[in-house]
């Protein structure tokens, strides 16, 4: 007796997906790319962004035309910065996280009013208060942090094991159990990850965010299995009820760049013709690097013998840029930003 062949039916289409990004472009852009992926592949019939009036124009400019944007206004009594762009550096991100909690009532009302009723919410891990409103309405949740598996696995292991207790010097390397070949130093970490008894606002945020993510259907990773198979498989074995779902690199779903500086384009074409790989180095719009850190990066790039594009910011240098001309034709100079 022959067995029936398994059908390869397509995955069910989500009726309505809601995106709730954190108020930072680096967190928002992966969700914009994910939206394009869901709509272009027919995996979702509708996608709606819930965003502040400050961030809504950026989302409208980058989202597919089929996506909707509903604004969540801050109450007039709200205090604190309403976007990461209001901060001098990313080190003050907790100020935005704290201020964002004022959006919870507006978020709950907007989520309840959406038609058709959402069957999935994708919210940023920096917005743990989204959990309660979604749970009250019975809307399943996935969490996005816009990053890969390594950045989730290793800090969790360090918090649990406290391997830094085995060393005395900030520069002395230590190993993390379960991660062969990985060696860190205290200098690689920052509080509260190196505090024997962590406490304070940052620790409270980590705990609250962890609880919200732990009760979700899993984490969306802006990565792919071939790149981080060890970390993804390890996490999914140990956290089977809160899996990682690698769906990246999501930038491949974005709109192709239509304009590129002609000098940069010609330089890239020349590297391609010589079969020389090009390294792209950037630290985002919120990084605040010191002159000594920039010098260390320059030394590393110099010793790498690789061609590269290095994105720097004018505020890092003042009136001069000491690295211009230092690397010859291995780098293309496109100015600072």
From TrEMBL:
Kindly provide the name given to this protein in its UniProt entry.
Glycosyltransferase
Q: Which lineage is the organism of this entry classified under, starting from the top rank?
A: Eukaryota, Viridiplantae, Streptophyta, Embryophyta, Tracheophyta
Q: Which molecular function terms from Gene Ontology are attached?
A: UDP-glucosyltransferase activity
SUPFAM superfamilies referenced in this protein's UniProt entry, alphabetically: UDP-Glycosyltransferase/glycogen phosphorylase
UniProt record similarity statement: Belongs to the UDP-glycosyltransferase family.
Domain of life per record: Eukaryota
């Amino acid at each position: 007796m022959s067995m029936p062949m398994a059908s390869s039916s397509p995955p069910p289409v989500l009726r309505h997906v809601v995106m709730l990004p954190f108020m930072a472009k680096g967190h928002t852009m992966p969700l914009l790319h994910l939206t394009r992926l869901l709509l272009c592949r027919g995996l979702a019939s509708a996608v709606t962004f819930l965003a502040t009036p400050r961030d809504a124009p950026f989302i409208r400019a980058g989202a597919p035309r089929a996506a909707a944007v509903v604004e969540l206004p801050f109450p007039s009594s709200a205090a604190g910065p309403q976007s990461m762009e209001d901060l001098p550096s990313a080190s003050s991100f907790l100020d935005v996280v704290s201020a964002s909690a004022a959006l919870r009532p507006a978020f709950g009302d907007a989520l309840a009013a959406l038609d058709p009723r959402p069957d999935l919410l994708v919210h940023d891990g920096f917005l743990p208060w989204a959990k309660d409103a979604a749970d009250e309405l019975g809307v399943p949740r996935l969490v996005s942090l816009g990053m890969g598996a390594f950045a989730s696995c290793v800090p969790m292991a360090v918090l649990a094991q406290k391997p830094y207790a085995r060393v005395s010097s900030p520069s002395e390397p230590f190993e993390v159990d379960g991660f062969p070949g990985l060696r860190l130093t205290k200098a690689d970490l920052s509080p509260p990850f190196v505090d024997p008894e962590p406490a304070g606002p940052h620790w409270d945020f980590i705990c609250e965010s962890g609880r919200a993510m732990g009760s979700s259907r899993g984490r969306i990773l802006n990565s792919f299995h071939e790149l981080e198979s060890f970390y993804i498989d390890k996490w999914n074995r140990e956290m089977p009820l809160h899996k990682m779902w690698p769906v990246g690199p999501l930038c491949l779903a974005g709109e192709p760049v239509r304009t590129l500086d002609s000098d940069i384009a010609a330089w890239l074409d020349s590297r391609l013709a010589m079969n020389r790989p090009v390294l792209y180095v950037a630290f985002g719009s919120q990084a605040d690097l010191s002159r000594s850190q920039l010098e260390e990066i320059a030394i590393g790039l110099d010793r790498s013998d690789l061609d590269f594009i290095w994105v720097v910011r004018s505020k890092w240098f003042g009136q001069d840029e000491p690295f211009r001309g230092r690397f010859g034709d291995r780098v293309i100079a496109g100015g600072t930003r």
